[in-house]
Amino acid sequence: MNAPVNPHAQARAIRIAVLAMGGEGGGVLADWIVSLAEHGGYIAQSTSVPGVAQRTGATIYYLELFPRAAAEAAGRLPVLALMPAPGDVDIVIASELMEAGRAVQRGLVTPDRTTLIASTNRVYAMTEKIALADGRVEDPVLRDACRTAAKRFIACDMAAIAERSGSVISAAMFGALASAGVLPFAREDFEATIARAGVGVAASKRAFAEAYEVAAGRAPDTPLPDPRSRKAEILAHRPPPDDAAALEREAADALPAEAMEIAKAGIERLADYQDIAYARLYLHRLKAVAEADRAHGDGSFRLTSETARHLALGMAYEDTIRVAELKTRASRFERVAKEVRLKPGQILEIEEYLHPRLQEIAETVPAWLGKAMLRPGALRNLIERLTSEGRTVKTTSVRGFLQLYAVASLKPWRRKSLRYTAEQDHLEGWLAQVRATAATDYALALELVECRNLVKGYGDTHERGRASYARIVGLLPRVAALATPAAALAQLRAAALADETGAKLEEATARLGLA
Amino acid sequence: MAERSFKEEVKSLYLGDGDEFHGEGILAITKALLQAGVSYVGGYQGAPISHLMDVLADANDILEDLGVHFESSASEATAAAMLAASVHYPLRGAVTFKSTVGTNVASDALANLASGGVKGGAMIIVGEDYGEGSSIMQERSHPFAMKSQIWLLDPKPNLPTIVDMVEKGFELSEASNTPVMLQVRIRACHVYGRFKTRDNVRPSFTLRDAMENPVRDVNRIVLPPASYLHEKEKVEKRWPAAIKFIEEHGLNEMTDGDLSDIGIVLQGGMYNTALRALELNGLADAFGNARVPLYVLNVTYPLVDAEFVRFCAGKRAVLIVEEGQPEFIEQAVNTMLRRADIQAKVHGKDLLPMAGEYTGAVMKDGLGKFVALYHPDAVAGSGAPPEGDNRRKAAMAALDGKVHGRPPSFCTGCPERPIFTAMKLVERELGPHHVSCDIGCHLFSILPPFNIGATTMGYGLGGAGAAAFNAPSDKRVISVMGDGGFWHNGLLSSIGNAVFNKSDNVFLVVDNGYSAATGGQDILSSHLPNPIRATRNGIEKAVRGIGVTWARTLTRTYDLKAMTRTLREALTTPEKGPKVIVAQSECMLNRQRRVKPLVNQAIKDGKRVVRERFGVDPDTCTGDHSCIRLSGCPSLTVAPNPDPLRKDPVTRVIDSCVGCGLCGEVSHAAVLCPSFYKASIVNNPTPADHRRARFRRAVLGYLQRRMARKAVAA
């Protein structure tokens, strides 16, 4: 019969869980830890359920390390587990922020025991990506949960480190693990492990070294450049300084300070989109809303600033002229070269996937011609035949560039197009309704402003958005009669963005008793 | 060419007496087979056994050196039938497949094999696919063993025990003239560990010996009256022989503990989790010394009554740890103890869940409860996870609904994706159709973003699953099947059946050149040559051979226009009989593995190489993400909108893009937006390339400056 055991007096295996997605090198990291441990006087066991890791699935690699000396002293081999038990994991390493969240949700991370080492980059889940608007889970929610659940939370953007080092994220994760000091091995042992594996050693060591410093807070945690921090190409062509400055001064006098940042961006956008007169029209329209805001608002001036946003986007609608102009700019060529990581000595060619249809063409040309195109007849048939299929245009070739250049040159005639008239009418109608609604229900007016977000895109997407918008605005008088009109409108707007078929919008309409 | 190469790892198969093996479970099993002097090996891939098949394929030279024949079987039925070689001859043979899906397919052969019995050791190594990561069917192999009376080994999940049980299993099979099944759970297949090796054994009696000196014994054939005798023989001879062997060789293990009035009986495969659960309850140390007596069943069928009686005698209670349902062992133990009039109370499914995986948490809870019932003071509260801890609970609650699932999905550039995009586009025109699915990567189409498919009935049974819908209707049913499923079972069960029964439906065969879902193994119609197998046997030829008249092969699935046109035609043609579309393009995962090194070498060698990838212009993207919904490519993602006026994230193509072109095709076909562009990056451009580029830069630069001037002047 065995003597009663006191497990707390005994050696304990170090338990490590690695959460990663297919192709991220979770397996490589597990192999490195095994090799590190075996060379450092430990017995190592690792296992995983690899089938699902392929093809973008998430998986957990699980490792246990046991001191060989303790096993030899006991004269027995330890029994090592093949899967983590909640509350029993010493180290959790996650390759991505939501995977760290997954570890927390599965109970693997506990405040008394677990050091959570996570990369803070996001690889969005399919459900986040397919949303019609913004379906992303907010980073702070995930971070806070990690911080709350872990004994120690070590986080930095390891994907950025890997990218900068020309390596893979597993090497950065290994560096962060070494830096955390939670394993009984020295930095040199970790680096020797990378060298033993013998694949991409130099790059892996660079990523390891940077992560080692960053994870410890000795070097700045620099994410990859945020696209917001650089100037969008849209703004690359600034209007003449004096004109714009004059208009901006005028805006500053007439608009509340809270709305100025967006209004300024709007003025620049529209001067670039058409001309300074168009920007002036924008300001004129916005002033009227600001007046209504002053009269009926709550002092936040959200109505003015949100209208400033949606009005600018609505006035700078994407027609073929705009697309052609944006696609042919020098700054755009530079951006593409950067995005595809063009190296010196390589040549870049760009082919656009375009599908202009009769409708878009007819709306772009002067109104008389547009109407003629839309009338049933030979001209219409010809254009329809020519545009039945999408086309590719090589903008880096002279011939392709000239095609788009010609379309972009139609800009001075834009005001004479069918689309221009239709868009301005639509916007005027929307603004009038916003002003009128603000007088009776400020919150509802704000929601009505937000409804403009439904109208976006091109082709089918645009038509669908227009239809949802029309449907919702059509319901407005009846929505206003409900107990909480603003909340109801917000629900309808969210429902319109919940699916492509409009089924969710109809459901919401019925639920609110508006059907 | 399989997804993972074991060329380096298989070198450890040469280890000899007294060496130490380091590696994965599957490799250890292969080594054990060679140490046991196996003559032939077959099998069918499928997780978790795919890698075992890949190891064997990569070890083909080593196997040939030892005179061992290895086959990639056409199906699990083929593999099981292969064991017929051990019926009359003293040949040791092993086959392997995923269970229970594979065991279902193999059942016919297994029943016949088990009926007549074997002379040489016959082993079926099943990858028990139960619990997390299980792709299909939360079923167990246990009842298969029971119904055919095949002995079931369920070794402790450490390499020394697994290896030992392979060798003992052959001996057990020969001692009892019965095939044995060795069950290895998914984590055990992939567990990295160590064991002391022995020399490989060259079989003393070879396949050639058998072929040149054929033997037959009518009494081994499953035909009356011999088959009546088989049942008698099973009960009267083979079973007692097996029991005797198991007892004499101590295949099951019993350990003592100071809490001797209770005991735990467990499946061998549950050992490590159970011991950890005891450790967490303060009832065991790290070395497996437990305070509760344990009876570890490395053989879960047949059970040895005498051992149970010995273990349970004088105890107040025992707990049976048996994962999955029904609880066969628990039921059997109750009968045994009643017969022996032993009063120990039998716990099992009352303290542990009836169904589902016995994870660390489940076991800790169940085992703790059991011991606490009889020795409340023995179960430690400390060292346990802080169940009442508010911080952990708060964190978990905060994440409710925030952690999204990541189901497996089509890879970047997967050629199957355009097929489903085409189906979505045709659906817009012709309305939705009933879609019958099959097993394989293409089954990911049932998940977002495609949401296509209604049922899946089994491998190669996509077409058969639509068989009832062979009635007059204005709409046809579409069945989808992969090339793997097609050769496994589909040619006859789905296509042949449709021809014979004059079905009018549409049958889509996804021909990506490999059994891609199981790891990219070659199959009959693989498009590339394979030195040890006969490939390049076309699917259209096969279906025409069994009577299909309307068959179309598309050689580039990325051609969305052709794909939609063909689908539309198949759904609307007045022609009678099954409409078979073979949609071909190479599995991108395999293609990249094959082509990438060649391309990199060519670039290094200074050759002109053009790499294509796609991109999205963020200033024309409006953040609607239709493109992602119609494509679902992992290289399409969302990114913060660089436009300060917009909030919704834009679509971005990340550098993993392989330039398959689907997103461009989709934006054309669905008239999405003008944001997609294809970038062609010319490596090592020629002087002519440079001249052309210089000329273009000059002209375009002039025009761009002119455009900028006009903008300022406006």
UniProtKB/TrEMBL annotation, chain A:
User: What lineage, starting at the top, does this entry show?
Assistant: Bacteria, Pseudomonadati, Pseudomonadota, Alphaproteobacteria, Hyphomicrobiales
What name goes with this protein? Indolepyruvate oxidoreductase subunit beta family protein
Q: DUF6537 domain spans which residues?
A: 261-473
- The residue ranges of the Pyruvate/ketoisovalerate oxidoreductase catalytic domain are 22-213
Query: Which Pfam family, any one of them, does this sequence belong to?
Result: DUF6537
For this UniProt record, the keywords arranged alphabetically read as follows: Oxidoreductase
* Origin species: Alsobacter ponti
> Which InterPro entries does the annotation name?
DUF6537 (IPR046667), Pyrv/ketoisovalerate_OxRed_cat (IPR019752), Pyrv_flavodox_OxRed_cen (IPR002869)
UniProtKB/TrEMBL annotation, chain B:
Which Gene3D superfamilies does the record match to this protein? 3.40.50.970
Q: Does the keyword ATP-binding apply?
A: no
A Pfam family annotated for this UniProt entry: TPP_enzyme_C
Q: Which keywords does UniProt give here?
A: Metal-binding
Keyword Metal-binding in annotation: yes
Q: Where is the 4Fe-4S ferredoxin-type domain?
A: 612-643
What is the top-level taxon of the source organism?
Answer: Bacteria
Note the CDD domains from the entry.
TPP_IOR_alpha
Listed InterPro entries: 4Fe4S_Fe-S-bd, HACL1-like, IorA, THDP-binding, TPP_enzyme_TPP-bd
Quote the protein name from its UniProt record.
Answer: Indolepyruvate ferredoxin oxidoreductase subunit alpha
Supply the source organism for this entry. Answer: Alsobacter ponti
